[in-house]
Amino acid sequence: MQPATVEEIIESNLEDADATVTHARDEHDEDHLAATVVSPVFEGLPLVQQHQAVYDALGDHMTTDIHALEVSTYTPEEYEDLEADR
After folding, report:
1. Edge to edge, what strands does the sheet with 18-23 contain?
2. In order of start, what are the domains of the chain with their CATH numbers?
3. The model's pTM
């Protein structure tokens, strides 16, 4: 599955999400993807539940089209702080 398609699926199924999906670093297999997802939905949720929300947004694609997905999740405030530190 192409990264842009995964981005579209996440963004259309997770409220106010902004997703960036690429092929995972240091991987030679194009089936391994990395997603950075920013959404206010993550506010107050533990990391495991944040990642579960992304997997839920992808639905059956996680078992049929995506071999591996590395997920990083942030609230908009957390992401803004991260970008300011760069």
Report:
1. 18-23, 32-38, 68-74
2. 3-78 (3.30.300.90)
3. 0.91
